[in-house]
Amino acid sequence: xxxxxxxxxxxxxxxxxxxxxxxxxxxxxxxxxxxxxxxxxxxxxxxxxxxxxxxxxxxxxxxxxxxxxxxxxxxxxxxxxxxxxxxxxxxxxxxxxxxxxxxxxxxxxxxxxxxxxxxxxxxxxxxxxxxxxxxxxxxxxxxxxxxxxxxxxxxxxxxxxxxxxxxxxxxx
Length: 172
Description:
Elements lengths: L2 H6 L1 E7 L2 H4 L3 E4 L7 E3 L4 E3 L14 E9 L6 E8 L5 E5 L5 E6 L11 E4 L5 E4 L4 E2 L3 E2 L3 E9 L6 E13 L2
Parallel strand pairs: 1-9, 1-14
Antiparallel strand pairs: 2-10, 3-4, 5-13, 6-14, 7-10, 7-13, 8-9, 8-11, 8-12
């Protein structure tokens, strides 16, 4: 991307992913600092991260998928967003894999200035709340990601164009 083009468009820098900053869009998935619940005869700890993935609307069911993502180049131009109004969508890296998540709150199609961007530390995942607008997976590090989402007869993916392209980068 040429330098003049980069400076002429709206720029968005991905911030480190924290639960507090990400709360309007969903849940950050990460190993908690506190102790979990002892299970399996004391050989493991259990941490319940999301108690309801909200995947049952309109006869939906949970689907577990594997996305094998190529690393994206940054800065990256965002021109389109998508949402899943009938269920959440969860992304969890297998291994240490960073990714950038561009989001906007649920509701009407977002304008460029309504977007927020976060970069994971490589060990975090996210569960997007139903209806949260988001860009497709933007892997910083190539590799595999487990995705849990709603499957069913009713297609659950709306897309919209972002009025003006947004250039997303991250400091890393």
